[in-house]
């Protein structure tokens, strides 16, 4: 038995049924680190949304980090991270709290965050929110003492395709 739910006041949706997109085994594929890098993203699915209010890209992937130097990035999109394995440490200088993200933990990053590389015994990133004075900037540092693995969803197109998941989307349902 299937349940059909229609909420009053909800936006109209096409009467055509739309099939799911499925990528079997996505989380089991090896993600190689680029030569000389200790962190990488691996985008495995991206669409241009059909949201009528504000269409944009919606991309999913995995984030992998190991101890060592990292590259800078500038957030021009929203991002969520959900830790699946290992640990990713985040020091938020706005609050002075160090968050030790472990499997099951979630973090959200806002548009405008800027990541800068800084090296220490264990490298970390510094995130800065634009439009604030240097004195009042919100700073967040990322590091790991061993390795961390997270799922992410971002509002941007594919930037770094997962090398082992290209063209793996199922073309039709396997009921």
Automatic annotation (TrEMBL):
Protein name, entry field: (S)-ureidoglycine aminohydrolase cupin domain-containing protein
PANTHER family registered for this protein in UniProt: ACETATE KINASE EUTQ, ETHANOLAMINE UTILIZATION PROTEIN EUTQ
Gene3D superfamilies: Jelly Rolls
Record-linked InterPro entries: EutQ, RmlC-like_jellyroll, RmlC_Cupin_sf, UGlyAH_Cupin_dom
Record-annotated (S)-ureidoglycine aminohydrolase cupin domain positions: 68-118
Classification via Pfam families: Cupin_3
Organism from which the protein derives: Penicillium citrinum
